[in-house]
Amino acid sequence: xxxxxxLSPWRQRQGVILLTLLTLTPIVGGCVQEPPPELLQxxxxxxxxxxxxxxxxxAPDEYARFVEQWVAAQQRLLTEEDVISWPWETNQLxxxxxxxxQTGLRAVSAAQHRREAAQRTTKARLADLxxxxxxxxxxxxxxxxxxxxxxxxxxxxxxxxxxxxxFTDGQFTRSKQAIQRxxxxxxxxxxxxxxxxxxxxxxxxxxxxxxxxxxxxxWSRHNNAVGIVVSKADRRLTLYRNGRPVLSYPVRLGFNxxxxxxxxxxxxxxxxxxxxxxxxxxxxxxxxxxxxxxxPNEEDRRRFRSARRAQAIPVGxxxxxxxxxxxxxxxxxSQTLGCIMLDNWQIDRLFESVDVGTPVTIVGATESSNPVAxxxxxxxAATDAGESQAAGGQPGSGELHxxxxxxxxxx
Length: 411
Hints:
Blueprint: H1 14-22, H2 37-52, H3 55-58, H4 60-79, H5 92-143, H6 152-168, H7 172-197, H8 203-223, E1 226-231, E2 236-241, E3 244-250, E4 272-280, E5 290-293, H9 298-309, E6 324-326, H10 331-337, E7 340-341, H11 344-351, E8 359-363, H12 371-390
Parallel strand pairs: 1-8, 6-7
Antiparallel strand pairs: 1-2, 2-3, 4-5, 4-8, 5-6
């Protein structure tokens, strides 16, 4: 084998190199053995195909071997393009290029297989996330507790949309990363709700509320009078006469109504044992008709002072007042005050029975299987699945079981 002058070292990447290689013409007729053009074209196509199937991401080792061999082969093509070989000599470079081609085929096959698997897994995880997010959002809306979560719901919704967009664009790794972040954020929001509303499932609180309700009912029976019980979890007002329920209406609470009222403007509805101190007819209230309660009572003041000393409420906060059971009209004010609102015809019915001095007991819940406790249990059950998703575990059903609806509108 006789070598003529060598070219300078390899300087440029595939574009210029391959254009040169595919258009080479023999310098010494019949003595310069060039690689078949179709082999070079197949290698170029493989390189492009590996980019299309994201070989660097889904088959990094195989892709790296191909690139290493392909680059080395291109360097040899440049330096050996003027090598004169006798016809009976084996062209080792062509043999090596065929090996590079086989390496590329294996890399493409591995990348395609793993990419398809990633697509299936990501699709299932995305479906789980979207279902969980829809149900979570519905539960939070039903609880009326979005205010507790701040900006987190918006951030979660954005992550869910990003995960879907990445998946549509074939960016499955980025989609999975967004899915994991969204699950973690949903888990943290569940923790916030559990911390804020967990008392609805705690035996001590439920026992205290049960005693308060029983005291009001027994007072009604003993005094042959009427008493009112409001369950915030059920969002229901029940009127007792002589110890027996005679009317029951659904109610609306403030924007943070499930929380126990701590200061003016927090939107929470107070919990405790109160009395009607004034019946306000039309023209004497900002609402249709209303029953003014004696909030704050002494227990409310004691808790307010304790919270202020512990710096558990904003500096300068006032305890508030003007808590009413009322009809419609100024709903925005009602949301801010944390009042209890009914339809006007329902207030009219109550006006027929409720006088000044009527006891009104407002509790979080009357039963352990109340809607808030059931909702928290469903959210906590989904947290385990969410943590598995965040850790890259197997996708599941992604469903949350919502609590049963409240009782009928009347008794």
